[in-house]
Amino acid sequence: SQQGEEDPQALSIQEGENATMNCSYKTSINNLQWYRQNSGRGLVHLILIRSNEREKHSGRLRVTLDTSKKSSSLLITASRAADTASYFCATGEAFEAYGNKLVFGAGTILRVKS
Amino acid sequence: DTEVTQTPKHLVMGMTNKKSLKCEQHMGHRAMYWYKQKAKKPPELMFVYSYEKLSINESVPSRFSPECPNSSLLNLHLHALQPEDSALYLCASTRTGRADTQYFGPGTRLTVL
After folding, report:
1. What is the pLDDT of residue A79?
2. Closest chain B residue to A86, measured at CA
3. Quick check: B1 and B99 in contact, CB under 8 A?
4. Could you report the per-residue pLDDT of A72-108, keeping only the tens digit for each?
5. Is A48–B99 a contact, with Cβ atoms under 8 angstroms apart?
6. Which residues of A are less than 8 Å from B55 in CB distance?
7. Which residues of A touch B44 (CB under 8 A)?
8. Distances (CA, A) of A79 to A38, A42, A66, A85
9. Measured between alpha carbons, how far is A106 from B72 in angstroms, rounded to an integer?
């Protein structure tokens, strides 16, 4: 079942601009993660934010989490052509004592024009 | 070494064939996952192995048969697949713990004729 819903579905910006993607989810979570996928390839983990955190930074990435609204946002600042990819949020549900069951949102396709 | 490898990269098979996908990691991770991803869709979880035991089967048809021979290796055996099973099959692993990052392999692009 799909947990996260993302918007926009597609985003096209100029190099140097900021890109913001939003994710909403439905149930309680342990954590929320953002992944990037270049065309037809494996996913690359970008950032993980735990349910007791509100904001997290990693380089040009900034993620916020609002558990009261069940939503998260990913901001990419000073975008580059190499940021062109699909971006997925994924909510983590723990199972047993090990592992983390991820349920992915529909994704946002980001195109950065140079 | 933070890499998950998958072989083959591409696979074309007929509906009567038997084939296997292979996934390997040497990071000491104890949970491994198979996902299926159709074009322009998000990955969907198929199976999870935790400490080499099948923990989750997301109601996957029996024509997909997972196997975890050891803590570093995960296989997905394919038999009598349908054309709608054509997709990108992704493997991932996590160390342990409830908040762990999943490390993904590059995937196997499967085409069923």
Report:
1. 98
2. B40
3. no
4. 999 999 999 999 999 999 987 766 555 667 889 999 9
5. yes
6. 95-96, 99
7. 104
8. 15, 21, 24, 12
9. 30
What are the pLDDT digits (tens) for B3-31? 999 999 999 999 999 999 999 999 999 88
CA B30 to chain centre: 15
Residue whose entry in the numeric block shows the structure tokens 């000491």: B28
Specify the pLDDT at position A83: 97
φ, ψ at A82 (rounded to 5°): -70, -10
HEC assignment per residue over chain A: CCCCEEECCEEEEECCCCEEEEEECCCCCCEEEEEEECCCCCEEEEEEEECCCCEEEECCEEEEEECCCCEEEEEECCCCHHHCEEEEEEEEEECCCCCEEEEECCCEEEEEEC
Return the pLDDT at B20: 98
Preferred mutation among B25, B71, B98, B111 to probe A, highest tally of A CBs within 10 A: B98
Q: Residue B2 above 70 pLDDT?
A: no
Neighboring chain A residues of B106 at a CB cutoff of 8 Å: 41-42
Burial class (CB in 10 A: 0-12, 13-18, 19+), A95: middle
Number of neighbours of residue A55 by Cβ within 10 angstroms: 11
